[in-house]
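Weekly modeling sync, notes
Attendees: S.R. (lead), two postdocs, one rotation student

Agenda item 3: backlog of single-chain predictions. S.R. asked that every request posted to the team notebook include the full sequence so nobody has to chase files. The rotation student volunteered to paste the first one in as an example of the format we agreed on. Action items at the bottom.

Example entry:
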Amino acid sequence: MSLYSSFFVLRGRIHEIKKILSLALSALLCVSVVGCSSQSKDDKVIKVGATLVPGGELLEELKPMIEEKGYDLEIVTFEDYILPNEALHNGEIDVNLFQHKPYLDEAVKNKGYEIMAGSKLYVCPGVLYSKKIDSIEELKKGDKIAISDNAASASKSLRYLESLGLITLE
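Predicted structure, as returned to the notebook:
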């Protein structure tokens, strides 16, 4: 169970990009779609930044549907969570897909990015990993769980732990 959806984050040709990506998602969900027009050949290329999994994999699935609408999708993959927003802010990509809204809000606040949330696209599950235990039921009072020190991710982790009944938040 996850409490935050990942968003397309937009800059530049915001309305056109948002419309095309929303249309592609609709096609994926078997909803009828309509095409969009563009003014130049450069406007037919949409550069999307994402982490390889799950965003990059999802975009690969959407690529043929976007191409059917007359657009080329160029997928730029990133191995960290800082560079996609930097690349978007600097105009190196048109859209990114990898983060939830609290993470985006924190990045905009701390870095002064001129980017904004677009459409919700998918929900990432919360996951716990351990080398010592096999299930949540094996956790005992006093056991320690490490979470991210990033405020937005920490918030997501704490809410996930609360949803499992492991902690209580005020």
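Discussion: group reviewed the output briefly. The helical segments are 14-28, 52-68, 83-89, 101-111, 151-163.
Action items: rotation student to repeat for the remaining queue; S.R. to check formatting next week.
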